[in-house]
Amino acid sequence: MTLRELSKGQTVTILKVGGEGALRQHFLDMGMIPGTQVTLQKYAPLGDPMELSIQGYTLTVRLADAEKIEVAPSLNPSPEEEENEQKQRKKNIPPRGEIGEGLHPGFGEEGRYHEEDAFHPISSAKKGHLTFALVGNQNCGKTTLFNQLTGSRQHVGNFPGVTIERKDGNIKGFPEATVIDLPGIYSLSPYTSEEVISRRFILEDNPSGIINIVDATNIERNLYLTIQLMELDVPIVLALNMMDEVRNNGGTVHINQMEEMLGIPVVPISAMKNEGVDEVVRHAIHVARYQEGPARRDFCCPTEHGGAVHRCMHAIMHFIEDHAHAAHLPVRFAASKLIEGDQYVTEALRLTQNEQETIEHIICQMEEERGLDRRAAIADMRFRYILKVCRQAVVHPEENKEQRRSRRIDKVLTGRYTAIPSFLLIMATVFYLTFNVVGAWLQDLFQEGIDRFTELTDALLTQWNIAPPIHSLIIDGVYSGVGTVLVFMPLIVCLFFFLSMLEDTGYMARIAFVMDRLLRLLGLSGRSIVPLLVGLGCSVPAVMASRTLPSERDRKLTVLLIPFMSCTAKIPIYAFFSAAFFPKHAAWVMMSLYVIGIVMGIVLALVLKWTWFKGEAVPFVMELPNYRMPVLKNVWQLLWEKSKGFLTQAFTVIFFASIIIWLLQTFDFHLRMVPAEEASRSMLAQISSLVVPVFEPLGCGDWRVVTSLVSGLLAKEVVVSTLSTLFAGVAITEVFTPGVAYSLLVFCLLYTPCMAAMATIRRELGTRWMFIIMFGQCCIAWLVAFIVHTIISML
Amino acid sequence: MNIQSIILLAAVLAFAAFSLYRYLRRGGKCSRCSGCCSEECSGCSQR
């Protein structure tokens, strides 16, 4: 029987984890090891992926991956046994109080974690600069703790993988100590590109100490990383985050007992409430200054399963000791990674053929004795130790309120018949509020303010008797260019506000869960839905949102598809042409354009999936976080950062480009100012006329149209303003037929995104991809517009 | 062209040049670290 065959609510025990490579290792690291109980919560509305409860948290797995996991009906301990055990541990719960209140004997200054033979070794680190790696699982509150430690304002969210690059900051009050916030990892066997960044930093940059943040509400799985970090023999402090939540639910952690068993300082904290953070800092500074490594680094048991893993591990440790020292790798860590088959460690150790063969024999013997393959045996050894620690030191809450609340909400939001309608309703509400109510209102206010400011400046320039060319530069160049783009700032900030609300509440992860099956047909994973939806609003935040995707392949493919989602800046173009050519069918014309965009996106995705981006999207193994109330402070911080970024963009690139466009539009090649009625003599018109033959097959070989399309590269809204200027006094309906107008609309829908979007694509994917998208979109737009024009001509 | 026009033109061009310089200035660091747009930031490895 495999995991795929489970029925809803059924609990089974894992027998064997199949598959191979990094994905299998990832499953093991996420706690899917033989002997573990797993419960099927539900299937996604489209039947795939499935939502599982394992090790006290929720995980999503695709059916194809679930098929690789063999299970058997579970042999649960009786409810009485479980209850008695909980009661026994509950007897020792300390009275409730503020987290971090009072002392516990875990202070490093007592020399508790020193090796006895190297008592208080004051290392060179004492006087030098201290660097701390902030390490933990995804979505366990690392960035929140980082912000508390450093006073910075990095974005935090309730979505696994918000942090996608490392960030540095000095600890408040300790200028000599730097803390580095690393992307979330589940183990030291890296699975995604962010995990590679974290592991590389820990292994190669030799931090003075590690602050390991652990989600106390999901302690078993989080400690798996802790155990591996301890094997590195680096000074480490364990920060048990979200302890307030654990206590509120009636659970607790016996800190002293846990410290005793782990051999490292353990500090209960609430990063969000800034409770216990000072104590974490004190411990971290101390253990780093005195280089106090963990008192325990050995987690294998000589009596368990005949001590198979224990003997194998220690035999290999002795065998590779010299190689590990030469490679500057901790010997215990090197041995365990060697057994797991980690390529990086294997290469770094530079073992001879003989040594490799001997080690292989030792491992094979262990596999035979233990009855598990090497990777599963090591994962099992770690989880067994964690279980021992948790049995002694952790009192799980009888009921997790947050989890229960999440399940209730999920009955609707990820329910079989309600998920898709809920998703459509929520997204429609977000777009309605952004583009029709809040954002539109703010946009009107902005427009009014910019118009008044322009009028005022215009009057002042006239009063000061400024020369006409300079007057035109300020008003028609700078104000018109920067102003047109600035007007869209409220929309973008508003959209970001709603999207960050979706992310902070935890709904974003559910959207990915619900939409995964549909997107997999296009070669993408469920996570890509978010950037694509944002693309319907604006391509700039959409391209930025693609950062959360776990693989480079998915990220590039998603960014390539974003320009096909018709952004709001194109609406004025649709409205302009619809009013002129299709006044009675404007809504249908607009809707058809959105559909053409989406259909073209799907076609391109399929073509790319079969050619350039061959292969499957990364497996959808994602933790579903509990729903939480968004923290207002975080939301405001995000909005402020977005506004600042947008303003910087407007007053740098767009400011400069506006001047260039104005220059080309206002002067001829002899640098003589061109009057409005002779606009065809301008440099822009002359350059555009070179491109006119390209547009003749589309039926729109008019230099004015081409000029407006070229100016649209700055911002799509400029297309309409340029058309209005160049066609002043001429009825546009006399120049084109409706068929030509429609093919022109199709071209506008699909051609190269605006400059701001291109700059963002360049920043996210690099110059090469920016040029690929720039020319690719133009070619696709021309081709589709030509097909549309030909079909309409034949009708 | 009068003096105020020349001053205004100089100011606009100076601002444009400065803003473009800031945008293009590599310095090896990105906006999170100090403010520019290199391919890969040396400060935080962000692209």
Short description:
The complex is a heterodimer of chains A (795) and B (47). Chain A is 57% helix and 9% strand.
Query: How far is the first residue's CA from the last residue's CA of chain A?
Result: 59 Å
Q: Got a strand count of chain B?
A: 0
Helix percent of chain A reads: 55-70%
Low-confidence stretches of chain A: 94-111, 114-119
Describe the model:
The complex is a heterodimer of chains A (795) and B (47). Chain A has 795 residues and is an alpha/beta fold. Chain A is elongated, with a radius of gyration of 31 Å. Chain A contains 32 helices and 14 strands. With 47 residues, chain B is mainly alpha-helical. Chain B is 47% helix and 0% strand. Chain B is built from one helix and no strands. The chains are: A alpha/beta (795), B mainly alpha (47). Chain A binds chain B through residues 165-168, 197, 464-467, 470, 473-474, 478, 645, 648, 651-653, 655-656, 659, 763-767, and chain B through 1-2, 4-5, 8-9, 12-13, 15-16, 19-20, 22-23, 31-32, 37, 39, 43-47.
Describe the protein's topology:
The complex is a heterodimer of chains A (795) and B (47).
Chain A: E1 11-17, H1 21-29, E2 37-43, E3 50-54, E4 57-61, H2 63-66, E5 69-73, H3 79-90, E6 130-136, H4 142-150, E7 167-171, E8 174-181, H5 193-204, E9 209-215, H6 219-231, E10 236-241, H7 243-248, E11 252-253, H8 255-262, E12 266-268, H9 277-289, H10 308-326, H11 331-340, H12 343-349, H13 353-370, H14 374-393, E13 394-395, H15 401-413, H16 419-463, H17 468-486, H18 489-505, H19 507-520, H20 529-535, H21 539-545, H22 552-561, H23 571-581, H24 586-610, E14 622-623, H25 632-666, H26 683-695, H27 703-711, H28 717-726, H29 732-735, H30 738-750, H31 755-765, H32 767-794
Parallel strand pairs in A: 6-8, 6-9, 9-10, 10-12
Antiparallel strand pairs in A: 1-2, 1-5, 2-3, 3-4, 4-14, 7-8, 11-13
Helix pairs in contact in A: 6-14, 8-14, 10-11, 10-13, 16-17, 16-18, 17-25, 18-25, 20-21, 21-31, 23-24, 23-30, 24-30, 26-27, 27-28, 30-32, 31-32
Chain B: H1 3-24
